[in-house]
Here is the input.
Amino acid sequence: MRRIARRLASIPYHMRKVYQKVSTAKPSLFVLAAVAIALSVFLLGGGVYDILEREIYIAIPLRGRWVFYYPYTVHEQTILDSLLSMTLYAIGTVGFLLTYQSTRYAYKPRQAFILLLVGAVFIVVAYLYIEYIIWLKLTAPYQ
Here is the structure.
């Protein structure tokens, strides 16, 4: 009984210690940047729409085929459409980060050039594929 009373009396002390540790914690800049990038990719990819929409589809049957996008409109999307756009935005972001990292290798020009080239390829591929998906949504070749 005495032991339980002592533990209950020390709860405010432990709570105060936990509060001090949490309030004085300083996360690293890398963690903050990664969380900010992940949040922006989620928002740009339509994650909020996916959460709030009541009837959202994985794919849509159209003329005997299954398509992963809503034809003729850019105002509706499926889960696969938003996952694809989030993935492409993430690839583009990685491309921008690689091009930024290439500037840090001034004394290793070969490595800097490879990072710059791979980053530029990621950016171009992500951009072209996103434009292709938007073109598919607007023209809808399945009529």
